[in-house]
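Page 37, continued from 36.
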């Protein structure tokens, strides 16, 4: 009977997830045409995109997998999409790589990681199964088959959650430390406390090592998407804790993503670490994943927010969300610093356009459809500075404001009519000049503050198709404004 039921399940999913048909529909959707579709952010012509998965370097290419529902814009039917690139500018066309197909993952192929083993790209992910409302998570290996463009499912390596934890047990990520191989998973204790749990590979099997011991004993009810980065400067645990209460300048999204940095003892499992820091201060950032290649730690985030789908007008057009641009992260004095990858400079069209002025209270600069802006604002006597993306024809704007007396940066989307609105605030130490590095796509905007001390990702959805204007203003004359502006190309999408 079990074999028969397995056959029925497989037959049903083979019909629902027809790779050939879905891949053909993707090909028909490129190049992306809608005015809200971004050009240098990875997104799909249809369906719902969320967590980056399986980030890896294999056979001369970077491989980027991601959560994707190709059947709709709901958080259902979770599959993995896949692209590959050698330079983060030229990409293969996205394809369906992994999808529900048997009793183990019939309710979704959830998040996981990638790594190279025995000259093969291996993937590890969470199988989601529900029966009568009861969730059964299992962790499974798969092997990438580049000639077929699919992840071939292999063995189940962890059949269920360990004793003392709920079925919220998922999102495996692999790391190697002190010559030993580990998986870290996000977990929830029976007391509904978020944790990170380690398994170690011994004699070919994955054995429970235990819970990472941190100083965060009561820090949200679930930790999603953990990644442990053993860097030369220290160990960094990335994770997304759910259930943190908003404070004035912290934890202002529905769910947060951040990190602690320190030193992990793999024998005692004790992580000596500093404070928890958020990875991104914008409205639209969650569930990041990072990996290390040739000394660079490269991070992608999901540009979106769970349980906020109604705030994104593209839902009515048949697609939702993007991935962020790739970021390099580096650890210094216990803090991560962020920068766009050097490869992003290849998107620039020609030389920089310089702009600026001295002793002025306001300056405007027209932008391209897609722009990169490097900006330094020397305060002088000014105490309050605004940097606006203005959509003049629509009468809309997105505002970044810095208040010197309180050292607070504010992101304000209340000047936009469509999409999520609201305000985000965070502390930012600035002495004499404010430095911003801004990437503006058609709807996706990413900002790096003070040489990468902070970052913010957010969407704006102007009601009309128009190029924005950058407007810098202050309450008193600014000593100096210096800017460099580049018009940007979009990604190049090529078939395999």
């Amino acid at each position: 009977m079990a074999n028969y039921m397995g056959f029925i399940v497989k037959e049903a999913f083979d019909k629902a997830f027809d790779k050939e048909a879905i891949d053909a529909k993707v090909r028909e959707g490129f190049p992306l045409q809608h005015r809200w579709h971004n050009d240098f952010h990875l997104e799909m012509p249809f369906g719902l995109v969320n967590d980056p998965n399986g980030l890896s370097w294999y056979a001369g290419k970077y491989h980027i997998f991601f959560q994707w529902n190709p059947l709709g814009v709901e958080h259902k039917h979770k599959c993995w999409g896949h692209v590959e690139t050698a330079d983060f500018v030229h990409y293969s066309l996205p394809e369906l790589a992994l999808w529900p197909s048997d009793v183990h993952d019939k309710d979704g192929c959830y998040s996981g990681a990638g790594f190279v083993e025995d000259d093969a790209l291996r993937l590890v992910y969470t199988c989601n199964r529900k029966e009568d409302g009861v969730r059964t998570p299992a962790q499974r290996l798969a092997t990438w088959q580049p000639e077929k463009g699919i992840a071939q499912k292999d063995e189940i390596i962890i059949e269920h959650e360990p004793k003392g934890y709920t079925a919220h047990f998922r999102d495996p990520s692999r790391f190697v430390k002190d010559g030993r191989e580990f998986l870290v998973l996000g977990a929830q204790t029976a007391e509904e406390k978020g944790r990170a749990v380690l398994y170690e590979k011994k004699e070919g099997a994955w054995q429970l090592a235990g819970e990472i011991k941190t100083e965060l004993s009561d820090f949200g009810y679930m930790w999603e998407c953990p990644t442990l980065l053993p860097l030369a400067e220290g160990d960094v645990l990335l994770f997304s804790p759910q259930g943190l209460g908003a404070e004035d300048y912290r934890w202002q999204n529905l769910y947060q993503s951040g990190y602690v940095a320190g030193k992990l003892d793999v024998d005692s499992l004790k992580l000596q670490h500093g404070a928890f820091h958020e990875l991104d201060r914008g409205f639209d950032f969650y569930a990041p994943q990072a990996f290390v290649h040739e000394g660079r730690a490269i991070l992608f985030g999901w540009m979106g927010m769970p349980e906020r789908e109604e705030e994104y007008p593209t839902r009515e057009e048949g697609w939702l969300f993007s991935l962020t641009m790739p970021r390099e992260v580096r650890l210094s004095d216990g803090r991560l610093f962020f920068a766009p990858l050097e490869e992003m400079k290849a998107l620039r069209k020609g030389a920089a356009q310089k702009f600026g002025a001295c002793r002025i209270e306001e300056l405007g600069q027209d932008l391209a459809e897609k722009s990169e802006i490097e900006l330094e604002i020397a305060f002088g006597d000014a105490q309050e500075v605004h940097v606006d993306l203005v959509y003049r024809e629509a009468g809309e704007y997105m505002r970044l404001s810095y208040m010197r007396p309180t050292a607070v940066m504010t992101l304000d989307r209340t000047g936009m009519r469509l999409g999520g609105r609201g305000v985000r605030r965070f502390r930012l130490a600035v002495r004499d000049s404010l430095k911003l590095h801004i990437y503006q796509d058609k709807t996706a905007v990413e900002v790096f503050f003070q040489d990468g001390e902070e970052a913010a990702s957010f969407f704006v959805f102007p009601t009309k198709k128009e190029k924005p204007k950058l407007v810098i203003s202050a309450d008193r004359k600014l000593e100096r404004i210096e800017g460099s502006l580049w018009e940007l190309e979009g990604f190049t999408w090529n078939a395999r």
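The radius of gyration is 23 Å. Flag for discussion at group meeting. Residues 177 and 230 are 7 Å apart (CA to CA).
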